[in-house]
Amino acid sequence: MIIVAKPYVLCALIAAFGVMLIGCTASAGAPTPSTAPPSITPTDRTSPAAASIVNAPLSAEALERVDEQRIFFAHRSVGEDIVTMGLPQVFRRYDVPPLRVVDGLPDGAGSLGNHWLDQTDDPGTKLDDFKTWIRDEGVPAHADIAVMKLGYVDVTADTDVLALFDAYRSMMEELESAYPQLTFLHVTVSVTDWVPENNAAIERYNQLMRAEYGAGGLLFDLAAAISTCSDGEANLHVTERGQAYHRICPEYTRDGGHLNERGAEVAAEEFLRQLAAISR
To answer: Which spans in the chain are helix H?
Structure first.
């Protein structure tokens, strides 16, 4: 049961049904930014990527296409869960030899170069590290596909979401222009079972990522995969200020943020599905 105690929560819920309520925008008390990401509604129980996850299952043939690629994947701990727990499980399920995981640069077809990004309180550190690996460490000469994942520590309630997204997009545009032979796959930020306001900020960032990269087929929607539960519904909630956000499904996490074996497999399957789609 949901108890609606504040006007902006009521407005958000009514808006979910497409009903216009006169005075909501004036009385809600929640400021609207001049440039805002696309919004979700608190009663939309379908994850943004749920349909694609269900309707485009993997196959052995798709995994064999991935096995011909050279992939560079830059990430931190959730990415490591995907690489070490999730990928082997998916390949094993389809009886296809797994990608070889090597530290740093990939070492030929069928390999994944695994890199832990530098991390500080400033997510710009990760952007700079990724840029360094592309420009100075030889990724374009050793990889066909490059992937960078920001983490839930990088997007919180205090983050200037638009500024971070603009920095990420600007960096990617620069790299894509400089290295057209390299395909860049983008990743949404993983959601947690922790602070609602942080997840709401992650939601705003992820909506910007979906709007920018989703239509082009170059988005690994990790957040959608791990917030779409085993019953097919999105784990969707609302903050006290009426901001809708997704939360990681309890069956996919070992501590509220990192993935367990099942969550890692779900995430890896979506990752591989996207890799197969862009493999040439």
So the answer is: 7-16, 24-27, 50-55, 60-66, 77-81, 87-93, 124-135, 139-142, 161-178, 196-209, 222-227, 261-278
